[in-house]
Design brief:
This protein has 194 residues and is mainly α. It has helices spanning 2-48, 59-87, 91-121, 130-162, 167-193. It has a single domain (2-193), classed as Cytochrome c oxidase, subunit III, four-helix bundle (Four Helix Bundle (Hemerythrin (Met), subunit A), Up-down Bundle), CATH 1.20.120.80.
Length: 194
Amino acid sequence: MQTLTTIKSIKTQKEDQFTSYFGMLIALGSFSMLFIALLASYGILRVRSGIWMSNTIETMPLTLAWVNTIVILISSITLFMASKANERENKIVTLNQIYTTIIIGLVFLSLQIILWNVLINDGFTITSHQAGSVFYMLSGLHGLHILGGLISLIWLIFKIRVNNLILKPMRLVSMFWHYLTLIWIVIFITVILI
């Protein structure tokens, strides 16, 4: 009887795991469609525009954007290290790496706000031209998702404190965070560099 119960339990866990990953893929797909629509709008506006303001971004904001890109890449690395420590069931290293990721995520958001202030002081506002409206829409939406990712990381800390092994929640939050890193790189390249 116990063998039958164990088999049913394993089957339920696998179905639950599949459902969770499938749900995360649907969520990431929805976010992707939103960002793709905004980037497509950006492309159309840019092609139609005779003069595009992003070509005149000063050195200081461009440097801040580069630093922000490096910061978010480092946060993905620290979360990857947390995932690996979690797989080895090393609770202390997992928690330390998640704390580090949260701090780096907060640095990213702070640098984003500083970047916005510098751009606004340079006249690059949401109402000054199309480039500004697109930039603030994309980076603001991304910032809201980063805030959601930080809340997920804090939730993950509480889950780890209660349980020693939390592979599924760790993987789901990691998928979301790495996705946000990828989205920032796309925004950085398409809106700021090009």
